[in-house]
Every structure is written in C-alpha cells, then in structure tokens.
C-alpha cells in the first residue's frame, strides 16, 4: 500500500517504552461481570448465560525481557450499550508478544504499514483499539457515530469483539495532562488526550505526525486526538517482532492512509508534531473553509438526520432553527437546549463525540461523562442485550457513579441535565476556535 512520501528525521530507538509503572496499569478497574449468552441462539434465558468479568494481563517475558506478553478476554470493565448490528459482546482470547524496545522507523512514509483492520493496540483495561476506518474505509469517527455507545465503543459483527475507534472517557479520567492509557502493537505507548503546554489547548491532529504520534522529551508515543486519526493510522514502529497467538503479526491494512475516497473533509494531514526537523505534512485534502462557523454544525446535523436511530433528534433541532437565514449561535444553542431539556441524552452523546469530546481546555466534559458513565447508560439505553452487572466492585469510581445518579434522580435531574451546560459551552467554543 502506497502512502504519501516525505522524509522523517531520525529518533532514538531501542529504548524501553513501557516502564514497570506503565505495565502495572494494565488491570480491570471493576470486578463487575457481564452476562453473556452461550450458543443459545436469539432467545436466551438467564439459565443460558454465563457471567464473565474483565481479564487483562501485561508482563515482561521471563525468557526475554525485551518483550512483553499481553493477554485479555476483551471484556470491558465498564457498562456499555449494544448499539451495533452485532449486539452481543463476546469473550475473546487475545494473546500478543510485543516488543518492549520498539524500533522507530525512519525514511519515507511509503514504506510504513497502514494500520490493519481489527486490533491495532490495547487500552489498559484490555479492550482493543481499532484503526480510524470502518469496513468501507470511511472515517469511523463519523460514519459509525450512530452505532457507538456512551463509552464510544461497540462490538463488531464478526464475533462480538468490543472495541474503541476513538478515545473513550470510560478508559481513564481526563485531568489535563496526557495519561498513559495503552500500548500499540508496534510497542509504542498510547497516551490519552491532554493539554499541549505550548498552546494551552488539548492535543489536536495538527500537533501530531502522519501516524498520530509525536516525540516528547526524546520519547515517541501516540496521542489520542479529537479528530482523525483519533489513535493511529499507521505504525511508526516495526511490527515484524510482534506475534499474535504465536504467529508473526501482519500489520499492513487495506485502507489507504488518509483515505480521500470516503473522506468527509475532516481528515487533514497531521502537522508539526513529529521529531525535530520533520517537515510539514504533504499536501492533501484540506478542510473546507467555512465563512460562517455555524454552517459546519448544520452540515453535521443534516448528516445525522439521515441516520435512523437518531434522525428524529437531529431533525427536530433543524426544524426548530428553521431557515438557513436564522442559523446562528443563539438559535442553534436554543434549539439544542430544547432537545436536551426533552431528555435526549443519546443525541447529546453523538454530537458530543464528534464536535466536543476532549476539545476543552480543562477536559471537564470528558471527566464529567466518565463520572456519570454508568448512570447515564442505565437510564438511556434501549434494547441492551449485554449488560454489565457490578458484583463486589473494588472501584470507588463505579459506586460513586451510582450515588451521583441516584442523587440526581432524587432531585428531579437526569444525566443529560448534568452534561447540558458543558455541552453548550463547548459546542460554541470548539467550532469558533
């Protein structure tokens, strides 16, 4: 697969990318178990189901300390909605041998591997990250938006593999500084959203190199961003030393990097985030200049209105605003406020993911959603076939979620009310910046 060509400056290679503290973070935050069907067809009674909890382990290979051994059953340690066509989250048997001293690639990007379909790395809870594309090589952050749950994840249609395409606030709390949240299959670490100390803003695509990473204090890592490619779209490290289930891993994907055939226009090339001396990214599809910043909001709403399970919500907002001549910050905010007040937390989630997510200086939005994650899911999901049952939870975070939700209900509030002020404030600030 051919990628755009440009030179890359050399970077330090052969260093240990994950220290012992990072390795220790691979654990399940909750001991809650999932009630899963066991080959019982479409009608499963409680007696046909097994209770399975999250399991994840990352250790140094005892026979060669330059490798890490990773195993996971792919069961998340947080609640989830079954929004995808494959509505059941199933147990997996992930087993990888990953280099602890990743080899940083230099030279031309045409020699790099675009990320494969399926798992490209793993979060600290054992749930895999997928690349930024759907099966048609379209931007999954946009075109699979309607099929994501409130943790911004879903199971696929082949085996019920639960996965993230974008950052999930249910992985870790966003506190301002980028936290270590996972490992890519080339061995380089993955960090969550955080503040760029040079700009005071959350890391964005323009801060990263083509693959989705950057060098900080002499060490390369991938950083999650709100825009494409979200996690990573190509491997900056060698994958020839990675093994899956005992066999050499084949990392090259079928989707062209920064695919233009299906690009909705938000997939501009990364900018200045690579090692020092790296030139700017190659020319490619650029964002369309919008004289009226509210226009991009309405373009998004019009797309969302075509999606079955949220069409009435986005359509209602469009109808409240009325003609294009009435499109303004004030009219849009008022229309959204009306819908949110009507209790539409699911629509809040969908717009929140695309436009807001971690695009706030203090990351308050992501943190608040993380705090309320379980409660919101319990109150807004419909048709859920896989439900996390908290049993003997050792995490104060989950119990606090329930207490917060109960308190809101007693006071006549709901999950969407808690998000609304942040949602409206960020909606305006993100687009105008």
Backbone shape: globular
User: Beta fraction of the residues?
Assistant: 15-25%
Category from helices, strands and their pairing: alpha+beta
* Rg calculated over all Cα atoms: 21 Å
Mean pLDDT: 62
Helices and strands, in order, run as: EHEEEEEEEEEHEEEEEEEEEHHHHHEHH
Sheet bearing the most strands, described? 6 strands, mixed
Strand line-up in the sheet with most strands: 10-9-13-14-16-15
Please give the count of helices.
9
Distance between the ends: 35 Å
Low-confidence stretches: 1-13, 38-48, 82-86, 263-296, 307-311, 340-433
Helix content: 10-25%
Q: Using DSSP, what is the number of strands?
A: 20
Can I get a quick summary?
With 433 residues, the chain is an alpha+beta fold.
Keyword list:
433 residues, alpha+beta, 6-stranded mixed sheet, 5-stranded antiparallel sheet, globular, disordered N terminus, YHYH_dom, YHYH domain-containing protein
Commentary on this structure:
- Residues 271-292, 392-415 are annotated as: Disordered.
- It comes from Oikopleura dioica.
- With 433 residues, the protein is of the alpha+beta class.
- It contains nine helices and 20 strands.
